[in-house]
């Protein structure tokens, strides 16, 4: 037997709630082998009034709606239904935060009416209200027109609801509703939509010459249908934690490119987030020699002493940071260091602020920890808006994640902004996870670590690694340094998950840090040449608005001049030009941007720019 679990995100009055339960029970088929069906409801009284928020700029209900939805998901809901009409106003933002499906009553009603081939819908609701506008917009989106009663009849509908139906005089209320409905039919309505629960109490199918549509009943039937569909074993085996994590958008683009290549098209990959250089020979030799010597067994979880000493030296010489060896941890890749840091700091419901655009994995890692990502847009040139970060801090804020140089923009955060930010974090006792993996790939200016600012000693966790600077993405070697308490907690996670970074790779890391850095300098100069070329070519094309990146190996042009979304643009570039880029939507919703990587040969970049020029003139 399977169990379907309906999660109801409330906001209705007790009468409407009772009516919804009644309709769900009525819609549930009775069978001897009846599968289980559970209903979980949360009429969270802490959610601010939605109408006041929309009409009078009252407190936003969205944060509490998100928290309530997450609670329902953790309680086992397979999907959510939202019967409250005004919640439809926030549906798109809510869906960005919640991974399980959300069924909204207004959307569902409009879609069902479209499938019934109606074109003119008589809407029985009070005029000028938010729900009326929301229903009108939803019907229009599906190609239908809402027929609204004139003002005098609207007032009668209002009277029917508040003076009679709510007062228990259903008979008089019904007479008024029937009279208004018949007027709508005379004006061409092909169906009558009950825009308020109270109207559905007195108006039933068969009362009129056209169908009567009860949104609450449609929602109940859809909920029952989905409950049994989501009760299948495939849904039950996955935890809610995993279900709310999205696949990597960058990995999806690679799959599309493989399909195009099968048609015989040469695809130029400008989507890759790794250097197209070979790992230095001396680093490869160090790993090989270590393996030959038998250095292929477990090491201490926190990393071999020799590598942590080299990392400590690096921090002192290059960043002016003094970390003791027990404040440093070696991890299998810098991504895992970020994962461990978030897991060590973030509890369910804690908020993590991140400036946008941001690397795709930050959001999913925070979700995996049960946290809530608070996104703060940067300026048009992708520099930090410190005041906006300050304004985003709430009593639930636990940490901030920053990434400089930045993926996907190539922005390098300046010392003044970081100092101002550090003062705020120090005053509010908020941790910062500073992702500095692109630290050595800077073309103008210099890298400054926020951990070097006053007051950051017990609050900053610096994450770095070998992937970008030493072309070691496949080696999976990273590290982090920070407060001993946090590093110790990260080490516990590591002990019970991956144990340690591979022993011989750690030896290679020592050589990478302690030997000549000439390889890095040469790679940076080659990236600079490519950066300058690609920015020059794109800037000559009116389809792209380019901010020149100061670091990393990405450019993040605005494509709004094309009239296409980032996904459409990326698809056109792949299908028609054979050039693979990454949609900007993946990096925090920047659907009017695309990410172009110049981690490819200058020859390939030139060919790609030629193809793009031919495509967009």
Explained architecture:
With 617 residues, the chain is α/β, with parallel strands linked by helices. The chain is built from 24 helices and 20 strands. The strands form 5 sheets. It has a 7-stranded mixed sheet, sandwiched between helices. Strand 13, helix 19 and strand 14 form a beta-alpha-beta unit. Helix 1 (14-27) packs across helix 10 (215-229) and helix 16 (334-345) runs parallel beside helix 17 (360-368). It starts with a strand and ends with a helix.
Proportion of helical residues: 40-55%
Overall form: elongated
Q: Determine the structural class based on helices, strands and strand pairing.
A: alpha/beta
Strand arrangement across the biggest beta sheet: 10-16-15-14-13-11-12
Q: What's the number of domains?
A: 3
Oligomeric form of this entry?
A: single chain
CATH topology of the largest domain: Rossmann fold
CATH class of the largest domain: Alpha Beta
Low-confidence stretches: none
Largest sheet: 7 strands, mixed
SS summary, helix count: 24
Q: What's the Cα radius of gyration?
A: 29 Å
**Residues in β-strands, percent:** 5-15%
The CATH architecture name of the largest domain reads: 3-Layer(aba) Sandwich
The number of E-state strands comes to: 20
Distance between the termini: 60 Å
Average pLDDT, rounded to a whole number, is: 89
